[in-house]
Amino acid sequence: MGKINILSAELSNKIAAGEVVERPASVVKELVENSLDAGSTNIKIIIKEFGIEQIRIIDNGSGISNDDLERAFLRHATSKIREDYDLFHIKTLGFRGEALASISSVSRVTIKSCAGEAQGKMLVLEAGKVISEEYYAPIKGTDLSVENLFYNTPARLKYLRNAHTEQANITNVIYKFALSYPNVSFELHVDDKITFKTYGDGDVHKILSKIYNMSVARNMISFSGNNDDYKVYGYISVPDETRASKNYINIFINGRYIRNYIIQNSIIDAYGTLLMKNRYPLCVINIDMDPILLDVNVHPTKQEVRLSKEAELISLIKGVISERLANYTYIPQGMNNVLTKKEKANIEKFNFLDELDNKFGMQTEENNTSLFNKGQNEANFVKEDDIDFGEDNDIHKLQEELNSNNESHIRRQQTEISGMESSLPDLSYTARPRENYTKYGDKPTKKEIENFMNFSKREEIGEATKEEISNTIVKDNSHFDEIKNLKIVQDESMEVKTLPDLKVLAQIFKTYILSEADNKLYLIDQHAAAERYNYEKLQRDFIDRKNYKKQMLIPMMFDFSIEEAAEIRNNFEKFTELGIDFEEFGDNSYVVREFPGWIEEDEEEMIKIIVEKVLNNNKITFNELRNDAIAMASCKMSIKANQILSEVEMNKVISDLYKCKNPFTCPHGRPIITKMEKKDLEKMFKRIV
After folding, report:
1. CA 20 to 30 Å from 687, out of 84, 256, 357, 628?
2. What are the backbone dihedrals phi and psi of residue 274, each rounded to the nearest 5 degrees, phi first?
3. Which residue range forms the structural domain that includes residue 381?
4. CATH number at residue 66
5. What terms describe the molecular function in GO for this protein (predicted)?
6. For position 327, what pLDDT does the model report?
């Protein structure tokens, strides 16, 4: 008897569902994609019991005709492609014709749809089979309800994560759609509560403020650029606003959310030395291209794609983002760094409540089982299969606009200040009377904490603060109508390209230079400042002196294992570009007779470190190797911490800093300079409350 079996249609659909319908969030994604492909401008998503009890999508799209409604639930049935040509010119989010068949095979589906006919049609399907059919009064659009998901595949239910995680995945999917389609109104209901709502007005800043918070939205800067094949545009965070996870980098191609590590890394690379190690920016990048350059038929989830002319796209992304970042300064507010976690939480709370609580306060209730416990919005905006709440990062207020007409008392290069163009409207509030303010230092009530946290969805500082509000959920949704009219503006002081005229006051802790300017105190990390100057100097020297060599008195000998020697041979070109020439000297041994001219100190040690970097990472590019080598060299030749400086030496550090293209971060991304305003000191001494 033969062993090859022809699988039944029911079993085939269940197998296909295992690829397409991994979890409730997958169902939401597929159904919302159908709504968007139908031209919907209003989409309501209703979730009960994290999608297992019900997922309901209501839209105002073109609808499905009566004749096509039942056919839409057959496998490989789609209105979006017809022939081979269409497969390589896909302009829709869906095209495989598998989603509805897969979903209906593992659930009970009720669908009502009308495409402008005299009456609409309703179908009820169970395990992929139609069990009921009737007609109803026409309302254009589609209303599709998925109930009892995975009722006939208990193994799938068994491997779902907890309710919080599954609900977070669903919310995350809606966030991505909202960012990619700002002209579409999305309304997410979770267990009879509105938890997220956009208004389809095209304002991405407003959406960012809902997903993260208003402070983050203000600190997201726009960018755009194009070449013959691609157009890229979106928002990136200033280098001061980072996360410990790459999951906050969101990539959309022709409106489709995708995962692409090459594009992701190109965005990170564009920041260069502005980011600290293991810190990553927030980003929303949209890429528009001719569909012929894109192959989305790679994976059933359609989140993996292949790109033509990928190198040109990467070059465009790096260039556009790097150029945009070059116009900004990043002087963190020192007050945020010196206060304790609890004090920072109190100050942020009261400053924010003074302006907003009266207008946007909300009622809350405790619920230990709510998904939306820890910073509802931002915490949920992570990849679907790995909920990573990331690492908390304090939100710094950026430098106020500086007076470019001041004459510097120290010789420096002048940098032109360009104003920030913004079409965003003003953000204005009516201040409350002072007697209504809660005094700084008073213990906040639990109610105040709840109101503040539910509005701002802030990423709080420290686990203790998180736990105080971890059980709150939204009870009153009237605030959405208030937020609809909210206006977000970027900090007008953000786009400044020069340092203030700093007057050196003293050195403290043998590590920091204390300065003042314009009623502000500035602290400069002497090592980081010197390191930045030397880094940029070595970058210039590398170009000017890369062909200049210095003869060694005693050649350097290297003895490698067979594998290491092979790596050295494979990377000869990189070493030569850096000015390091290896000569073979017996089996698996090499000799170096000359120093690169751009290395000024500890030449032998630097060469050893460069060799180790290549051996430890054989995929390192020449640019990465060069930048790492120059960063290491600049660190070694710079003034150190715990080194006493004279006034002349401190002024020299400041003077050199003025000559830097980026005087705000060291080559490793650490801040060079931080500030404390006079009013911050007055708050600390309770001169103002």
Report:
1. 357
2. -80, -15
3. 339-487
4. 3.30.565.10
5. ATP binding; ATP hydrolysis activity; ATP-dependent DNA damage sensor activity; endonuclease activity; mismatched DNA binding
6. 74
Is 589 found in the same domain as 459? no
Q: Which of 438, 458, 487 is the last residue in one of the domains?
A: 487
Using CA atoms in the order 522, 525, 529, 535, what is the torsion angle rounded to 10 degrees? -150
Cβ-based burial of 347 (10 A; exposed 0-12, middle 13-18, buried ≥19): middle
Indicate whether 178 and 39 sit together in one domain. yes
Whether residue 160 sits in one domain with residue 49:
yes
Q: Are residues 64 and 151 in the same domain?
A: yes
**Secondary structure of residue 200 in the 3-state scheme:** coil
**Assigned domain for 311 exists:** no
The pair of structure tokens assigned to 333 is: 């507010």
Structure tokens at 386: 């790995």
Nearest partner of 128 among 107, 155, 157, 142, judged by Cα: 107
320-361 confidence digits (pLDDT tens): 999 998 877 667 766 554 444 444 444 344 334 333 433 333
Residues 54 and 125 in one domain: yes
CA distances, 10 to each of 101, 126, 153, 326, 483 (Å): 10, 11, 12, 58, 47
Structure tokens at 520: 């502000």
Q: Would you tell me how many other CB atoms lie within 10 Å of the CB of residue 252? A: 19
Q: Is 407 exposed, middle or buried (0-12, 13-18, 19+ CB in 10 A)?
A: exposed
Is there a domain that residue 108 lies in?
Answer: yes
Count of domains in the chain?
A: 3
* Residue at token pair 């105080």: 468
pTM of the full structure: 0.66
CA 384 to centroid of chain Cα atoms: 15
Give the confidence band of 19 by pLDDT, cuts at 50, 70, 90.
Answer: low
DSSP 419: P
pLDDT tens per residue across span 403-445: 333 333 333 333 333 333 333 333 333 333 333 333 333 444 4
Q: What six digits make up the tokens of 587?
A: 């089996």
